[in-house]
Amino acid sequence: AQSVTQLGSHVSVSEGALVLLRCNYSSSVPPYLFWYVQYPNQGLQLLLKYTTGATLVKGINGFEAEFKKSETSFHLTKPSAHMSDAAEYFCAVSDDSGGGADGLTFGKGTHLIIQP
Amino acid sequence: ETGVTQTPRHLVMGMTNKKSLKCEQHLGHNAMYWYKQSAKKPLELMFVYNFKEQTENNSVPSRFSPECPNSSHLFLHLHTLQPEDSALYLCASSQRQRYNEQFFGPGTRLTVL
């Protein structure tokens, strides 16, 4: 069974500072990894995903994440935080390597706070 | 309408009521999902439908009853719920062959009194 651990339920950074949200996973097969963002009163929106190939993945809104198999990590970064980045961020894993439709396993989420 | 829509957005019901949540996807996907999002807990997968067939029931109590009449529509029928069932219920869809990238609706905020 797979699992996801997000370190830090709340992360606070200053506007313009580096954003780093941590995610570690466990999976019995090569994983597919995702970062989603949730703004208040909205559903989840995909930021980026890793399936195969290049381990540094770029997503929307200037975010990127690096898959490190040796560390079983998929940390999310953004060089310069913007006030509009304040939201809840979820890391998720799927070990559905067979092309089927399985649900995702999510971490508990990290609430990102941007200080002016 | 585009993407994944859910109705109603907010629902308040008593423990003896019967209500239904509706989800519709306009993306041409063939898999649909129900998730439960409670405060301070990870999103919990409830049900998976693959080509209208239920392929996963994640030990969900029988007071939650899903229905998938076609690949575009998904319902969650609710009856005799408990206060601890109050949560945000999210619907998602995906294309079965697309690395399981899921697209989410805005959710229904359910309050059980």
Q: What is the 3D shape of chain B? A: globular
Global morphology of chain A:
globular
Radius of gyration of chain A: 14 Å
Mean pLDDT of chain B: 90
Sheet of most strands of chain B: 7 strands, mixed
Mean pLDDT of chain A: 90
Overview of the structural elements:
The complex is a heterodimer of chains A (116) and B (113). Chain A has 116 residues and is mainly β. Chain A contains no helices and eleven strands. In chain A, the strands form two sheets. In chain A, strands 2, 4, 5, 9, 10 and 11 form a six-stranded mixed beta sheet that branches. Chain A is globular. Chain A starts with a strand and ends with a strand. Chain B is mostly beta strands and 113 residues long. In chain B, 0% of the residues lie in helices and 57% in strands. Chain B has strands spanning 4-7, 10-13, 18-25, 31-37, 44-50, 53-57, 64-70, 73-79, 87-94, 103-104, 108-112. In chain B, the strands form two sheets. In chain B, strands 2, 4, 5, 6, 9, 10 and 11 form a seven-stranded mixed beta sheet that branches. In chain B, strand 5 and strand 6 (53-57) form a beta hairpin. Chain B starts with a strand and ends with a strand. Classes of the chains: A mainly beta (116), B mainly beta (113). Chain A binds chain B through residues 4, 32, 34, 36, 41-46, 49, 51, 90, 94, 96, 99-109, and chain B through 4, 6, 30-31, 33, 35, 40-43, 45, 48-50, 55-56, 58, 90, 92, 94, 96-97, 99-107.
